[in-house]
Amino acid sequence: MNEAKKLIVSHAPFVHNGNRIATRNYNIMLAALPAVVAGVYRFGGSALGVLCLSTACAMGFELIMNLVTRRKISIGTGGAAVVGLMLGMMLPATAPWWLVVVGNFVAIVAAMQIYGGMGGNPFNPACTAMAILGISWKLRMNFDAAMVDINTNFSMSYPMALLKNFGPDSVSGLSMNGLLMGAQNGGIGTVFGLGLILGGLYLILRGYVRWEIPVAYLAGVAVTAALFAAAGSGKYAGPAIHLLSGYTLFGAFFLLPEDSSSPVNFLPMILYGLLAGVLTVLIRDIGADVDGVVFSVLLVNLVHPLLDKIRPKALGKVVEHA
């Protein structure tokens, strides 16, 4: 038999639609661009420096780990660049260089590469890094304290800190339209709510993010906040402040849908998003953390393999022959 005519059989999939991991990652960065530009405009040149350093450090650490572990160089896929950008967007504009470096070391090396690299991480790398930084250097991660020397054209109050420390009356005067347009303190790329919504819609329409997780998460936040506000007799804030401040919108569209740490089936995605929304408000209202999004994402990352065991029934049926 002619060797050239032998049938070569490989494992599935057998048909490829042309999509590439790099294309997805580059589109995620493109979707984040409106919020990034708005953040740099609001916070100034120091914010741009933090974003650039964070992205560069993430790519550098991935390259080093590729060389040390003798894996294929994967820097071109954009996975590390996305992680670095996501982490930079959550940091204060005045974050010192060493904080950015440590955060990216945790995100890329400890939370990603030791599990085999992109696709193998059980937890969101950027959230893992933010949790470590927030626990280790609370003052550096305090947005109001970090931004005290930055001259800006809007109020420097961080709504989540006001809500946690002084109750709902402290945020009652905040304009919801202002919050949506970025008139608040917070992470560099997380204050411009409209930009995050537009970026999220772009990812959903292009098929890079499924709608189930963001919608379920925002619904979980809104419903839980409304229940707390109704039962708390003025002790807790309503849904609007929870939805438009902090990391809520960023978490909905850019953190929770991360491929490796989120479910892939319909019902698990709905439950995953709802649970994250409930946990976010629980942590904010009765927990210790000011924002709650980072830890709620990590908690649902932990249970997502169990949720993904809920699968649709197979089509057809087994026919037994006598």
Task: Walk me through this protein's architecture.
By secondary structure, the chain is mainly alpha-helical. α1 packs antiparallel against α9. The longest helix is centred in the first third of the chain and has 25 residues. The model has no long low-confidence stretch (mean pLDDT 88). The chain has 14 helices and no strands.
The low-confidence parts are none
Strands, total number: 0
Strand content: under 5%
Number of helices: 14
Spatial shape: globular
Main beta sheet strand tally, sense and closure: none
End-to-end Cα distance: 41 Å
Coarse structural class: mainly alpha
SSE succession: HHHHHHHHHHHHHH
In short, what is this structure?
With 322 residues, this protein is mostly helical. 58% of the residues lie in helices and 0% in strands. α1 (21-43) runs parallel beside α3 (79-90).
List its salient traits:
322 residues, mainly alpha, globular
Give the helices and strands, then pairings.
Blueprint: H1 21-43, H2 45-69, H3 79-90, H4 97-110, H5 125-136, H6 143-146, H7 159-166, H8 176-180, H9 193-205, H10 212-231, H11 239-244, H12 248-255, H13 266-286, H14 293-307
Helix pairs in contact: 1-2, 1-3, 1-9, 2-3, 2-4, 3-4, 3-5, 4-5, 5-14, 9-12, 10-12, 10-13, 13-14
